[in-house]
Amino acid sequence: MKWSRDDRPRRVVVISTGGTIASRWTGSGYAADASGDDVVATAAVPDHVTVEVVDLFNVNSSRMTTDRQLALLRAVHETLADPGVDGVVVTHGTDTLEESAFFVDLHHTDPRPVVFTGAQRPFGAGDGDGPANLYDALQVAATVRGLGVLVVFDGLVHAARGTVKTKTLASDPFADPSGERVGRLGFGRVDIDREPVRPASIPLPADGRPAPRVDIVMHHSDGDPVLFDAAVAAGARGVVLVGTGAGNATPEIAAAVARAVDQGVHVVLSTRVSAGPVAEVYTGGGAVDLAAAGAVLAGTLRPGQARIALLAALLADMPSTEHRTALLRTLLGGPENPDPAVAVAAAAA
Questions:
Q1: What's the rounded mean pLDDT across residues 261-285?
Q2: Are 182 and 147 within 8 A, CB to CB?
Q3: N or C: more exposed end of the chain, with fewer CB within 10 A?
Q4: Coiled-coil regions in this chain (predicted)?
Q5: Annotated active-site positions, please?
């Protein structure tokens, strides 16, 4: 599909942000410490590829913030402003890689690839996976075109949209629980199986726009609106409600969603289940009532990426709440309200 094997020299820029691939032992645990140059020095470089390094920041990815993600987004766009660059690789911690990669993908219009990778074992470990992952990411960044932002890990190529961390420590931590991988690597080549489906990309947020608070609140047995209401009271402009099953909660939480929406807070409904769509199947506080209260269904996006879609919509320059909601639905993607009978049949299959 959209890849090339010609021997033209390729120039790839590696943007280093920290994570396990850059982590060393501190005496009590591992922390991001190694520079981008140090990380790149551990890996072989594919033939005909030259590498340049940008040290953007160096943190464990559990410390990721919207301001850092905005800095990364702008660094990617500034890098691709140079027509001599063929691709970008971002080294990133795995904890929040799915969020940063999706954030960049929502704003990515260039046919040249941005490839996220990292490691599950630390810098300098004898069995470290960082060098092989980085080699693969460089190879993908030097060859594919028109596929958006990708995640390359353990010999597999994933689309940013839908790909989440599904295993805490295994060497193959990433997958799209509701979809298929994009491709794989092996024997010196990149094999692409499918082209990711992506909504139209949106412009970069305006410089200086303050980052809005966007919270995630999970429903559970005995769940009540206390934490949801607390998020709104704390100033959240958006809340992702993580429902049970196909996106269900209680009548009391549905009422809290309606109050929040009336105050101008955007609410997205996702699910704590690992795969499948959110669907309007149940009432009694289920997705039927939550959607009627104003929540927007997240499709198959899991909570972290649903939050990123909501964040991107809030950062966008929109003339009204209605326009912002329409943008949010587009960014979330997927069927907004699948037929309940079809959803139930699919769940039972």
A1: 97
A2: yes
A3: C
A4: none
A5: 20, 94
